[in-house]
């Protein structure tokens, strides 16, 4: 029977990034995906690399910063291996926070309304943005769909094996350690197993990893056919009080996002889409001349304490790398690096103690 050094459950941005890293270290890797690679939360994401977000958990900040700093090299390497560009944008973020918010981010600075206008002439201050303080943040953004496409191509180039359209149901255990996985139709033997199944991680027996789905709806607007496409109306990511706007280099702008407790329901609703669009046109009236191209919902993988779940479980050789909640695109490079170090018993760049799956053991 064929076997692999590592079987990864779930080919979202986390499973794909980790699989690629492990393969670069010489491991034989199998990725098992219940649907198509990169089509769940990672497909729905906006792609902000928001390491300056003041609401990040303190223990996550060093990982967020390290991951954000890894992005240019991560993307350059991926582009070279795959020929696909994930549209890494470096223009920065204009964000609005309450005046008393404590921002702890190197090279972030407060800016006055006049400078906001100079940076983004089409942005209009709303009552809420006037009531808060604007900052220019040294953040990047990426197109998560292109990123996953690049990861899939790089994985194939490197000889990673894929099984798609097949859900893992159970971890196989022999002599008290994980030895592979089972799907409805097959078994796959492995030296170790990593659960990267996002919002579905808790469905795999016998040791469910406790994630839950946190729904987010988003809208994408595109230039009207009669206008010249190619340059977005805004250059910066704008995190306005009611909505965030993420420009892509081809002229699209993403408007996001809701945060809903709706189970595994991925339907969009017209009122929410209309509301996001209205907030966006209040902030940038010229968006009113753009067309709604698409709207979707995705399921962020949230853990009981909203922190990622990273590390070996109480079952030896069974690992979790999930629960990235609102930050999985940002945290993919550092997650892949740290999990690779852990699996190969190398020194860890950061302690993973605060993120251990064992913190939820009863
Ligand atoms: C609207 C929205 C906006 C977001 N914006 C941002 C942002 O701007 N920046 C940011 O950093 N993050 C953002 N996020 C969060 C980010 O999308 C997630 O944290 C990240 O995509 C999680 O990646 P993942 O690989 O863990 O999960 P997923 O992409 O969901 O991948 C998990 C994969 O596992 C597969 N799977 C599940 N169960 C099984 C099984 N039993 N067997 C086999 N396969 C299985 C699934 O089909 C899926 O493909 C956003 C999320 C949403 C929904």
What can you see in these coordinates?
With 362 residues, the protein is an alpha/beta fold. It has two domains: 3-83 and 144-211 and 304-360, FAD/NAD(P)-binding domain, CATH 3.50.50.60; 93-138 and 213-302, 2-Layer Sandwich (D-Amino Acid Oxidase, Chain A, domain 2). Helix content is 26%, strand content 27%. The chain is built from eight helices and 18 strands. Strands 1, 2, 8, 9, 10, 11, 17 and 18 form an eight-stranded mixed β-sheet that branches. β13 (237-239) and β14 form a beta hairpin. The longest helix is centred in the first third of the chain and has 22 residues, at 61-82. The two termini are 36 Å apart. The model has no long low-confidence stretch (mean pLDDT 96). Bound molecules: flavin-adenine dinucleotide. The site of flavin-adenine dinucleotide has 44 residues, from α1, β2, α2, β12 and β16.
